[in-house]
């Protein structure tokens, strides 16, 4: 009998990476929201807050594609726990500087650049390493677990707000530092699974080699037409997501008393839907030949629902956001597990770097375009236009590119 068929999911290494990533996600969620509040309070300037957001996002354009080739040559396992140790030291040092009253905006700017770079490189390393700890037959279950943890990490935003208001930013940064330190300790105990992979660990790696690998990563994406269709659609979908982040909260605040709480209540149903969707994906495996039509249908429906839900009464919003959560969990799981199964190990770093770069460009473009559009057009109309664009892109790129996209999404584990 094929060993992969009976291979368990919850091995020692998978349990460790799950615990480590859960603690790391907790730290990231708490840090991101708390620092945003702190920047507003510390600077009292909308322009400096915008500069902070830019400094946080800018590394996410270049860092993934620059780090991707390195992740295909060197140890991803060591990169993951090294970056978590760096995050622990960075947040701990920032908290200490605040306590000693030696903190200023220049230090904040430098710290923000480092945080953005670390998070971007970490994503490439983690996404390229995670599949090595799971047998291919368990990919869907594994990414259901990862998706559940990622969704639940958003709940800690409320915890972060409470800690920030009650204990101050220094205490929150200290807690973040502890989270990342614990995550890194977990991750140092993962077995050296890379030693059994055909990927070579280069001891001498020159700039010329790195440049060649960068070009090869984009050539690979161009050759793999199915991956290119999916990546291009996801960039457009990320553009719609960027527009949503600019529009949604301001619309709720402008149309409801205590609109931020209404926003959290409505989108809480999306969180519930995503958790339920991941739970169902863990226990129910979608037949191989059904994954492509399920994914395409989900991509289109999620975009169409998000294009109209702001036009509906509040109870309907809750129902529609719940559906977005379930459908989003299912389609995200199919997309990620299929892609990571399709891309060979020695190209995962380069592909994931290019993919994340495209997604970031899409998000930033959506934020900028939507920010400009809402100055002359109604918020809900701008949101609807972006989401309809995402639905059309799915139909054209993935539906029209069925010949190329279906073999990727219907890939047999």
Written description of the protein model:
The protein is mainly α and 413 residues long. The chain has 2 domains: 10-189, Growth Hormone, Chain: A (Up-down Bundle); 212-413, Growth Hormone, Chain: A, CATH 1.20.1250. 80% of the residues lie in helices and 0% in strands. It has 17 helices and no strands. Helix 2 packs across helix 8 (156-167), helix 3 runs parallel beside helix 6 (105-129) and helix 5 (76-99) runs antiparallel to helix 6 (105-129). The longest helix is centred in the first third of the chain and has 32 residues, at 12-43. 46% of the residues are buried.
- Proportion of residues in helical segments: over 70%
Number of domains: 2
* Succession of helices and strands: HHHHHHHHHHHHHHHHH
| Assembly level | single chain
Please tell me what the overall shape is: globular
Structural class: mainly alpha
The share of residues in extended strands comes to under 5%
- Helix run count: 17
Largest sheet, if any? Answer: none
Care to count the β-strands? 0
Rg of Cα set: 21 Å
- Unreliable stretches: 1-5
Mean pLDDT: 86
CATH-defined superfamily of the largest domain: MFS general substrate transporter like domains
């Amino acid at each position: 009998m094929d060993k992969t068929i009976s291979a368990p999911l919850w091995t020692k290494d998978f349990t460790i990476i799950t615990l480590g990533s859960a603690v790391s996600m907790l730290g990231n969620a708490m840090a991101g929201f708390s620092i945003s509040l702190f920047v507003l309070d510390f600077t009292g300037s909308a322009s400096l807050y915008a500069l902070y957001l830019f400094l946080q996002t800018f590394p996410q354009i270049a860092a993934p594609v620059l780090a991707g080739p390195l992740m295909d040559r060197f140890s991803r396992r060591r990169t993951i726990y090294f970056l978590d140790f760096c995050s622990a030291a960075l947040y701990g040092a920032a908290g200490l500087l605040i306590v000693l009253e030696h903190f200023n905006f220049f230090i904040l700017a430098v710290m923000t650049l480092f945080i953005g770079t670390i998070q971007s490189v970490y994503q490439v390393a983690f996404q390229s390493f995670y599949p090595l700890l799971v047998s291919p037959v368990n990919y869907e279950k594994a990414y259901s677990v990862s998706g559940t943890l990622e969704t639940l990490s958003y709940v800690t935003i409320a915890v972060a707000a409470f800690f920030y208001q009650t204990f101050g930013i220094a205490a929150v940064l200290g807690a973040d530092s502890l989270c990342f330190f614990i995550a890194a300790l977990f991750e140092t105990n993962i077995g050296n699974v890379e030693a059994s992979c055909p990927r070579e660990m280069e001891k001498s790696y020159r700039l010329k080699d790195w440049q060649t690998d960068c070009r090869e990563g984009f050539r690979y994406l161009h050759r793999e037409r199915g991956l290119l269709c999916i990546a291009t659609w996801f960039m457009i979908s990320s553009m719609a997501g960027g527009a949503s982040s600019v529009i949604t909260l301001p619309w709720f605040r402008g149309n409801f008393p205590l609109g931020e709480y209404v926003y959290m209540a409505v989108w809480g149903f999306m969180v519930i839907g995503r958790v339920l969707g991941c739970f169902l994906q863990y226990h129910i495996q979608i037949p191989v030949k059904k994954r492509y039509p399920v994914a395409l249908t989900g991509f289109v429906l999620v975009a169409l629902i998000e294009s109209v839900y702001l036009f509906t009464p509040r109870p309907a919003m809750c129902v529609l956001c719940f559906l977005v959560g379930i459908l989003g969990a299912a389609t995200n799981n199919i997309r990620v597990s299929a892609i990571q199964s399709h891309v060979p190990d020695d190209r995962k770093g380069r592909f994931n770097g290019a993919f994340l770069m495209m997604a970031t460009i899409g998000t930033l473009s959506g934020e900028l375009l939507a920010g400009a559009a809402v100055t002359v057009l109604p918020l809900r109309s701008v949101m609807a236009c972006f989401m309809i664009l995402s639905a059309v892109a799915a139909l054209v790129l993935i539906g029209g590119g069925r010949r190329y996209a279906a073999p990727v999404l219907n890939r047999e584990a």
